[in-house]
Amino acid sequence: MEPTDPQLNQGPHVELKTGALYLGTLLQSSGASMLWPITTLYMHNQLHESLSVAGVVLMLISLAMMFGSYIGGYMFDHFNPFGVLMGTLTVAVGLMAGISFWHTWPVFALLMVVIGWADGVLYTLMSSYAATITRIDTRKVFNMNYLAMNVGVVVGTLVVGALFQHGVQMVFWAALGMYVGLWLLAWYAFRLPGLKQQNVQERTQVHQRSVHPGKLLYGLLGLTFAIYFGYILWESVVATHMTDLGLSIRDYSSLWTINGVVLIIGQSVLNRYADRIKYRQSVLTGAVLFALSFICLTYARTYPQILGTFMILTLGEMLAAPQIPAWVVSVSDPHAKGHAQGQVMMATSFGRALGPMFAGIVIDAAGYTVLFWLIALIIAGFTLLVAGLARHAR
Asked: Any stretches that span the bilayer, and where are they (predicted)?
């Protein structure tokens, strides 16, 4: 007879080595970061499509990522994570090879949307693997994973700056190299015998206990949506806002270089104290800084002022962004890691999908100042909601 308690049948806990996780995140982030900075630029300047068309494509990419996040979380919990990871990476490598050869309109847009779906699956799988790690404090794991992601962003954008002038195909080949590197790393380091069986046993415990997520989880997902609903504006309309103020594209690009350097240094220091800071303190303080940055942006007119505003946002990002998925791990069922991380990535992608469209409507109707105040109020509203829910959850 089989034991009635699934825990009696469990062996040692199966989890990924942190070095493999961080290196995998760095490679995936580097490859993805070589694509998003040039998507609008390439479609508008070289494929001669309108900014409206480019905006629609970006929205479709974000929606595809959201769908991929759901698929990634579901498949991590219900299937062999290694097989899902290798299958998705194989698709991603094939798509990157395809876009390296065929990047005319509309093939480029179609391939970018499917690559967005694959990235959504991969981001969620990486976060789900991170959630399996128990020998290190969860806050430190996600903080270091976010640090690795930001190093990847810096590497990716630097490569774009060096190669784009030599032709967009060079950028695509470099991104392909990163995905091939991740495929090889996954093949040798992500094969974890027993992880599938561990997920099955843990999922059985979920059904037996009839666990239901609390209101705090949904509040955190709403806050995640609000933060990235605003954050995407720095990657889109703020560039136009700065040029309207008489600043250059080089000024705008330098913000992201400084952002990456500050994040790498700041998170390296913050990681030493991550396990001493409560989730509530870190996330809510970061969210307040996010809202404050948009209020400051309404008054910023010079490059130093905008840089100072962006540093407020960067500090908020350091405190909130890596700790939200870690907090979600602590308030959701520990035996449904993939589903929980998939929800976080879906909220992120949904915010990034709707943000530019909302911004365009508000700017046309009322201007940048009204837009920035509305974003600040939306983030502040969800921050207050989470603060109240966290107080009741204690």
From this structure: 20-39, 51-70, 82-102, 108-132, 144-164, 170-190, 216-234, 254-270, 282-300, 369-390
